[in-house]
């Protein structure tokens, strides 16, 4: 169950077998069934979760009951409400399994122990946060500057696996458009844009 995590870490930092063995003791394996929640709005996020298998979505629900998906997390991705995790404040987000999932959870105490004992993991976490910041910033700029068609085409190009695994109404929610509008976009040929 830890192979994917260790491959992910190894792409960014080089660890010894002993360091890997130590890291393994810090993570809590967790299985979720499809439609089961890892986190619900109003609860404090006590873990950051590495997705070993399956697919999660992170979303919020507005006052009108409309869902707004802010992240999909397939295998090899991390998912959490980092603000809630770091501050201890209640989360505004829900984290739900879209498929049966196997996760590796890391609480704050274990996270602190990890970076104290295996100092290279601080670099790993910094690189993960930097990559997340860049992706979030790119998504923000695209949402302000791209047409709905451009956002959809980029999503499909950048995340073809996710596009095949999630329902169209969830892609529409992620892109900030209605399912009906997404259906019209999907029906167009690229030359019609």
Automatic annotation (TrEMBL):
Pfam families: cNMP_binding (PF00027)
InterPro entries: cNMP-bd_dom (IPR000595), cNMP-bd_dom_sf (IPR018490), RmlC-like_jellyroll (IPR014710)
Sequence ranges assigned to domain Cyclic nucleotide-binding in this UniProt record: 11-115
Protein name, UniProt field: Cyclic nucleotide-binding domain-containing protein
The species this protein was found in: Larkinella terrae
């Amino acid at each position: 169950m830890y192979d994917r995590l260790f491959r992910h870490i190894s792409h960014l930092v080089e660890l010894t077998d002993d360091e890997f063995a130590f890291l393994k003791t810090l993570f809590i394996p967790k299985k979720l069934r499809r439609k089961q929640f890892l986190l619900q709005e109003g609860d404090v996020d006590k873990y950051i979760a590495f997705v070993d298998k399956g697919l999660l979505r992170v979303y919020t629900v507005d006052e009108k009951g409309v869902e707004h998906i802010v992240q999909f997390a397939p295998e090899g991705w991390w998912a959490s409400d980092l603000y809630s995790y770091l501050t201890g404040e209640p989360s505004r987000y829900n984290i739900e399994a879209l498929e049966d999932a196997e996760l590796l959870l890391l609480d704050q105490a274990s996270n602190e122990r990890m970076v104290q004992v295996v100092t290279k993991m601080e670099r790993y976490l910094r690189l993960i946060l930097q990559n997340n910041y860049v992706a979030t910033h790119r998504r923000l700029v695209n949402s302000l500057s791209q047409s709905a068609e451009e956002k959809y085409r980029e999503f499909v190009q950048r995340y073809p696996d996710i596009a095949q695994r999630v329902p169209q109404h969830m892609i529409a929610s992620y892109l900030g458009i209605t399912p009906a509008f997404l259906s019209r976009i999907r029906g167009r040929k690229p030359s019609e844009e």
